[in-house]
């Protein structure tokens, strides 16, 4: 080998070696950072996140999907609270709300199709309208009397789809609604916290990228399992408004739910979320007490989207929580629970809402 060739090989080897060392150093720094975060005092370490359970039931939908649900709480309560979780999460994302409300109210929690313990439905069944139909069937099967619907993120969109497709339920069966960190539409226009030009570029390439990755979902999922330290750091900064104060245990809990959602499912639902538009259906919700809750640092469903919903619902109560992001029910559970309890009191005072001395529809006073 000539001296020139040897020099080229040497330079190439040095470049590769330097790059490898850089990757290794970055990985080490990442692990060190995550390790330091997890060594901090954590009051939530003993919290049984994801361990609270109710009576497991299955609801078979009109298109043959066997949805998983749990009935929990005070069975004698005349008012049922139906909790609808968000995109890539599952019913356990309501841990703190379940813990707080189960002694006072009857609860129905369910895994939306292709999430949690509910089976896959394919791209054709992964639409917001279909989720609205699913919710109608869950209510028909598991809610004997009046109820209040609580929806986070995609769960809020599910409630809006229900309002559009089954408006007759609101004011009769459904006595109140809570919309948490959600949107009535135009998610494809959000900035993601990026400058306008970059944001437009990201939105332009993201759908095709998600679709492409979805076709290789199994391989992507293997990579997601291997990269959970990176996912931890990203979720800590994006899913929560104050990364320094949020519990590492809570971040791990949320990240494990997201990671357990197959990427093919993420890809199947992505177009439906981006094209979601239910602003015209919001008027139905004005017939019942409605609570809108959002964090002012929510980058996924920004605060402007909740304000737009509130503008369409003059009677609704809007709660804006400072320093809080998209996973508000996990980050600030006390604030969310207080708002829900206030809503439930207002709903119970509605005619047929289950207030003491009232008889729920379809039941005879003994």
From TrEMBL:
Under InterPro entries, the record lists: AB_hydrolase, AB_hydrolase_1, AB_hydrolase_fold, Epox_hydrolase-like
The record, for SUPFAM superfamilies, names: alpha/beta-Hydrolases
Enumerate the spans annotated as AB hydrolase-1 domain.
Answer: 80-333
Entry keyword Oxidoreductase: yes
Q: Where is this region: Disordered?
A: 346-366
Superkingdom assignment: Bacteria
Record keywords, A-Z = Oxidoreductase, Peroxidase
Q: Which Pfam families does the protein's record reference?
A: Abhydrolase_1
Q: Which GO terms describe its molecular function?
A: peroxidase activity
What name does this protein carry? Answer: Pimeloyl-ACP methyl ester carboxylesterase
Please tell me the species this chain comes from. Answer: Streptosporangium saharense
């Amino acid at each position: 080998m000539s001296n020139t060739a040897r020099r080229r090989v040497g330079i190439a080897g040095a470049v590769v070696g330097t790059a490898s060392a850089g990757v290794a150093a970055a990985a080490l720094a990442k692990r060190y950072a995550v390790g330091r975060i997890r060594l901090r005092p954590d009051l939530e370490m003993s919290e049984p996140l994801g361990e609270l359970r109710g009576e497991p039931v299955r609801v078979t939908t009109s298109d043959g999907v066997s949805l998983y649900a749990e009935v929990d709480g005070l069975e004698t309560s005349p008012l049922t609270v139906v909790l609808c979780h968000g995109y890539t999460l599952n019913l356990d994302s309501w841990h703190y709300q379940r813990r707080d409300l189960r002694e006072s109210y009857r609860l129905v929690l369910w895994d939306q199709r292709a999430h949690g313990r509910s089976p896959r439905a394919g791209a054709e069944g992964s639409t917001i309208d279909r989720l609205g139909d699913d919710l109608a069937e869950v209510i028909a099967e598991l809610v004997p009397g009046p109820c209040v619907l609580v929806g986070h993120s995609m769960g809020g969109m599910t409630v809006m789809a229900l309002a559009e497709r089954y408006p007759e339920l609101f004011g009769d069966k459904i006595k109140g609604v809570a919309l948490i960190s959600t949107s009535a539409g135009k998610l494809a226009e959000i900035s993601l916290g990026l400058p306008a030009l970059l944001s437009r570029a990201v939105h332009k390439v993201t759908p095709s990228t998600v679709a492409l990755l979805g076709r290789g979902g199994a391989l992507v999922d293997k990579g997601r399992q291997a990269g959970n330290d990176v996912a931890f750091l990203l979720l800590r900064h994006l899913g929560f408004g104050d990364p320094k104060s949020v519990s590492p245990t809570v971040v791990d809990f949320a990240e494990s739910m997201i990671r357990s959602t197959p990427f093919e499912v993420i890809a199947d639902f992505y177009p439906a979320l981006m094209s979601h538009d239910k602003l015209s259906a919001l008027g139905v919700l004005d017939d019942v007490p409605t609570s809108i809750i959002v964090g002012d640092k929510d980058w996924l469903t920004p605060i402007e989207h909740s304000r737009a919903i509130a503008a369409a619902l003059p009677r609704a109560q809007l709660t804006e929580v400072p320093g809080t992001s998209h996973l508000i029910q996990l980050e600030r559970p006390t604030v969310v629970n207080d708002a829900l309890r206030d809503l439930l009191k207002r709903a119970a005072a509605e005619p047929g809402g289950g207030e003491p001395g009232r008889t729920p529809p379809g039941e005879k006073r003994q």
